[in-house]
Design goal:
By secondary structure, this protein is an all-alpha fold. The protein folds into two domains: 10-73, no CATH class; 93-138, no CATH class. Helices cover 62% and strands 0% of the residues. The chain contains seven helices and no strands. The longest helix is centred in the last third of the chain and has 14 residues, at 127-140. The radius of gyration is 35 Å and the shape is rod-shaped. It starts with 9 loop residues before the first helix and ends with a helix.
């Protein structure tokens, strides 16, 4: 992480002030160690640090304002809502209409009965089966 001026570290100053005020504070200790190890804190951690630091009167206002500016500079990360569930298979209404029309005229047609069971079980018809169904419709439904 590239810092503009390595000798000026507002976050470290605020963390040290919090630790001087409450040396046994678990939150401040964990942020202090994390900041030393990683070199930075997340936006949520900085927000927590700011809320703790605003309760103390010993920290100069200029450092708090600088920390707020650092927070405003960071991007907000939003989780988008998951998409609504979609059905795995949508029935092909054109094939369904052809199947019912053929079965109304020829109720014992075995191949079309097979297509009907596949259609009713929400199994997709293959392109070859669709062309076969269209061929049956052309041959059997001549009116």
């Amino acid at each position: 992480m590239f810092k503009k001026k390595p000798d000026v570290d507002i976050v470290m100053d605020i963390l040290e002030a919090l630790l001087r005020h409450n040396p046994d504070g678990v939150f401040a200790n964990s942020l202090y160690h994390q900041y030393q190890e990683r070199g930075g804190l997340s936006k949520k951690q900085l927000e927590g640090l700011l809320s703790k630091a605003q309760k103390l009167n010993t920290i100069p206002e200029s450092k708090l304002v600088t920390l707020e500016a650092m927070l405003l500079k960071r991007p907000n990360r939003y989780k988008s809502a998951p998409p609504p569930p979609t059905p795995l298979y949508e029935k092909d209404t054109a094939s369904g209409a052809l199947i019912t029309a053929i079965l109304n005229k020829y109720p014992q047609h075995k191949r079309v009965l097979f297509f009907n069971t596949k259609y009713n079980n929400n199994e997709p018809l293959t392109p070859a089966e669709k062309t076969e169904l269209e061929k049956f419709a052309r041959l059997l439904l001549k009116d």
